[in-house]
Amino acid sequence: MSENIAYTKIQIIVRTLLFGESTPTPETIRDHIQTYRAIHPISDLDAEQLARELETFFDVFMDVGSVLKDHSFEPWLDSARLDIDPYYWSRYKSLLIKQNFNNQVLGSLDEVTDRTLGLLQNPLKVGSWDRRGMVVGHVQSGKTANYTALACKAADAGYKLIIVIAGTHNSLRNQTQQRIDQGFVGRDSSNIAASSSERFIGVGKIDPRRRPVTFTTATKDFNKALAEAVGVSLKALKEPAVLVIKKNSSTLKNLLAWLEAHNASGSRKLVDIPMLLIDDEADNASINIKWGKDEVARINGQIRQLLNIFDQSCYVGYTATPFANIFIDPNTDDEMFNADLFPENFIVSLDPPTNYFGPTKVFIDEPKHFVRYIEDNEDLLPLKHKIDFFPTQLPESLLEAIRTFVLVRATRISRGEAASHNSMLINASRFTGVQERLRNEVQVYMGSLKDAIRVKGGLLFSSSRHDSDIADLFSTWSTEFKNGPEEWEDIYPHLHEAAAPINTVSVNSGSAGKLNYFEHEKSGLNVIAVGGFSLSRGLTLEGLSVSYFLRNSSMYDTLLQMGRWFGYRIGYEDLCRIWMPEEAAGWYAHIAEAVEELRTDLRNMERVGATPREFGLKVRSHPDSLLVTARNRMGSGKRLAVRIGLSNKFVETTTLRSDGAILERNREAVRLLVTDLEALGHGILGAEQDGGSLLMRSVPASAVMLFLSNFSNDPASLLSESGPIVNYIQERAAAELSHWDVLFVGVNDAPNARSRTNLLGRELICQQRTVGDRYSDNPRSLPIGNKQRVAGRGIEKTGLTDSQILEAKQEFDRTKHGGGKSLIARAVNYPDRIFRKKRDRPLLIIHILELTANLKPKDGGTSEIASWTDVIAWGISFPETNLDETLTEYIVNKTWIEEFLSDQDSDDDEEDDV
User: Fold this and answer.
1) How many helices and strands, by DSSP H and E, does the chain display?
2) 291 near 252, Cβ under 8 Å?
3) 558: confidence class by pLDDT, cuts 50, 70, 90
4) 421, 517 in Cβ contact below 8 A?
5) What is the distance between the alpha carbons of residues 11 and 33, in angstroms, rounded to a whole number?
6) Contact criterion met (CB below 8 Å) for 900 and 716
7) pLDDT of residue 500
8) Mean of the pLDDT values across residues 645-670?
9) Cα–Cα distance list, 519 to 24, 100, 424, 535 (Å)
10) CA distance 632 to 634
11) Distance between CA atoms of 291 and 299, rounded to whole angstroms?
12) What is the pTM of this model?
């Protein structure tokens, strides 16, 4: 695409002309472009490229989400609007328009932040009051823009102090301060204490008349000396004050001491101004009390103190993980609701715009396009390593990722985006020392690429293709981008311009490398960022296109927050790639489905007027809360009783016992099931053919319970423990769960003779599965694959009528956030939960598997293939109950905790108190 000025001029003119229209047609866009091409000539190719850009821009929309609230609160905002001057919001809205927010998204942001503001207390209300709420967003989806808008509106309404707690690291706090400076303060706070004249930025360039007071800067967290230098109490300020502080015990201690010494008054020694506290990443440190981690509990207590020192306060926690430990930490339900930071007054769920690049799109809808599995790291960059590990060579997968990043930047240059930010993330170790050594290795390889491109890149490709680095770049392009819109001849001339400015920096508490995108607004910052925890929470990597993620965690909050690649990738989404182990990709897919399931629950609960308390119980009883609960209690040395709801849930055996006798016992359980079904009038020979599978309808519950009782479960597959499930079925066997559909899963084609089984008394072609990597660490168990899933997507629609399946899909289509045109054409990938909701009968799924494992000797010898035939696994799709739901009690034992939680990430790059 051309980089000429004419292109940019037409883009600005047409966008301005059409901005008042909600969704201009493609024809309207092209007509306007054609009109102005006469004044500003551009080629036909550029004209079509611009038309597609504008189509994407105007095709984005955003729903307003859903809300749960307490029933006793009296609305106040509508009646107060007459006296509110929307000064701060108006100029922030103008800034967002300049930043290309279209009418649809801006209108939804306006509405949802109005809704949140209305759930806070009226700041002009006399007397003591406090409100506690939570906003649930998506990782990298624009939460900062949301709470900046909320801060602006709160200031307009009369809140005098706004405190933003912005994470546990300086890098994140500084970045958040810069964004608050841009969107609310309007001045570069890093110059506030300097003798030089102040510099207006962001909203300050739009309207600089009013100036919020800030007690923190873009380079300095809160300290008492800086606050005392302002020389005036908070109550005497004519404009609102804002503080952006790190979630750090010393910082909170200093702030509390200053408030008590200089601003508290009266007999109760309280600060008498309305205060809004915004807690970003509210599930991190604010509430999550781990065994033996007293510092986290201390921060929790200090946030409570901070709220209690104000006579009038509101707390809003922002999080992307509905499984946040707000709901799960306390031992009892009563303790959960009595916790000071529980969002008892309101919960707002944000829906992202349709152009959001999130976990569902990446790991469920289009994983083959975006995700690459890391399989070559163990010898050079092992997943598990000690603090003194010294990498001396990079795995080929990482070299491939680095080359891909260079090619992405060259492609973006060819698309006219030479001045855009470009970032690559490498998150492969929790130790800062290892991160530094890894950064050095990446720097050396990047230097080699730069040298080759500088020397050979100016030649014709026919002359340079024999250079090994140039040949490797071409090979990578052929693998990743050959089917894209650009040809190699479009990319090759831009390689030197792409590679030359790329810097490699480490991002952790001990590094000097900084990610200051604001200082490179005109030319763009091009960086490979190597880090650990500092890259895992809140920190935004602008223009992130390539990620190399080699971490070990099954925790929802940790994994989602490590996903810095989520967000918005307008104009280059098709170029984004993520390298990670297959197991991590499986966890992301699982989490994406689980989180979306909870969001659906929240939308449904809004319709019936449920409260935050009821949603808290819903989260607490979700099967996936097992992980979070066990993690918080893993140091207690006790067995844990966790109560789970099975209504409208799917459970399956994700791990099996490898012992030969137990495998045979489970085969016998299937034989007995077939015999039992025969006696009940359901002969296997009369089973209904469903593709390569066999289906029996309306089977009595007694047969299912007998099979489950006979099956020997692996302790690592906790949810499929037979005892609790049989008890749940028995309670409902006379009513909802009296009759079942039973599916014996098979396939149509036989890869080899061993795939055929007569275990059922009727031939079935077995599914083939691989054994997961965890088998190498624990050969007593057989994890089925690395993705924590046995059944294929769509299996839960088995037994439904065509009309039920169509109705489920239509309902999903109506509620699914779609409408934007994907850069990659695809069919809708319908989640199984929509079919489960339509089930009249539960479904028992029996898998007869052929398993294989590639055993890699630790001494580096030749790999061996191990195999198992007629291996039994099962799953159950439970329909939604119409009875009073009783929770099923599972006991989290030591074996399960060791399997899933013994090697969780505990980052070494923690910052000292400052």
Assistant:
1) 31, 27
2) no
3) low
4) yes
5) 8
6) yes
7) 95
8) 94
9) 36, 20, 18, 20
10) 6
11) 15
12) 0.81
pLDDT at 700 over 90: yes
Query: What average pLDDT does range 274-302 have in this prediction?
Result: 71
Mean pLDDT within 317-323: 80
- What 3-state class would DSSP assign to 485? coil
CA angle 782, 784, 786 (to 5 degrees): 110
**What DSSP element (H or E) covers 877?**
strand 864-877
pLDDT at 212 over 60: yes
- CA 33 to CA 38: how far, in whole Å? 9
Q: Which two tokens stand for residue 232?
A: 């005036």
Please give the structure tokens belonging to residue 405.
Answer: 């990043």
H-type helices in 739-788, by residue range?
Answer: none
- Top mean-pLDDT range of 325-334, 357-366, 479-488, 629-638: 479-488
Q: Are 420 and 520 in contact (CB under 8 A)?
A: no
Task: Give the start-end residues of each E strand in 811-863.
Answer: 843-855
Q: Kindly state the tokens that stand for 218.
A: 């873009």
The tokens for 640 are 């844990």
Among 834, 720, 726, 843, which residue's Cα sits nearest to residue 788? 720
Do 227 and 192 meet the contact criterion of CB atoms below 8 Å apart? no
Q: Please check whether residue 433 is in contact with residue 387, taking contact to mean a CB–CB distance below 8 angstroms.
A: yes
CA 828 to chain centre: 20
**pLDDT: is 45 or 152 the higher one?**
152
CB 677 within 8 A of CB 741: no
Q: Output the pLDDT for position 545.
A: 94
Residue 345, token pair as written in the block:
């007054």
Averaged pLDDT, 608-618? 88
Q: In DSSP terms, which residues pair with 398 in a beta bridge?
A: none
User: Taking a C-beta distance cutoff of 8 angstroms, is the pair 155, 183 a contact?
Assistant: no
- Which residues lie across from 866 on neighbouring strands? 853
Confidence band for 821, pLDDT divided at 50, 70 and 90: very low
Hey, CA dihedral for 629, 630, 636, 640, is it positive or negative?
Answer: positive
As a whole number of angstroms, the distance between CA 844 and CA 693 comes to: 13
- DSSP per-residue string spanning 219-261: S----HHHHHHH-S-GGG-SS-EEEEE-S-HHHHHHHHHHHHH
H helix runs in 481-530, sequence order: 488-491, 495-499
**In this predicted structure, what is the pLDDT of residue 649?**
93
β-strands 577-580, 371-373 pairing: parallel
Q: What is the 3-class SS of 63-101, one letter each residue?
A: CCCEEEECCCCCCCHHHHHHHCCCHHHHHHHHHHHHCCC
The answer to whether 34 touches 17, Cβ cutoff 8 Å, is no
Please report the pLDDT score of residue 1 as a whole number. 37
- Strand, coil or helix: 273: strand
First vs last C-alpha separation in the chain: 49
Tell me the three state secondary structure of residue 515.
coil
Domains and CATH numbers, the chain: 5-58 (no CATH), 66-71+84-349 (3.40.50.300), 377-540 (no CATH), 648-794+842-885 (no CATH)
Residues 6+ apart with CB under 8 A from 260: 269, 309
Q: Which amino acid is at 723?
A: G
β partners of residue 360: none
Query: What is the per-residue pLDDT for 907?
Result: 47
Tokens 């939460």, residue? 143
Question: pLDDT at position 10, please?
Answer: 78
User: Over 90: is that where the pLDDT of 256 sits?
Assistant: yes
3-state secondary structure of 762: coil
Structure tokens at 826: 């695809």
Model confidence pLDDT, tens digit, residues 766-796: 999 999 888 877 888 899 988 878 999 899 9
**DSSP structure class, residue 584:** H
Which distant-in-sequence residues (6+ apart) come within 8 Å of 119 by Cβ? 67, 69, 73, 131, 133, 345, 346, 348
Whole-angstrom distance, CA of residue 468 vs CA of residue 14? 46
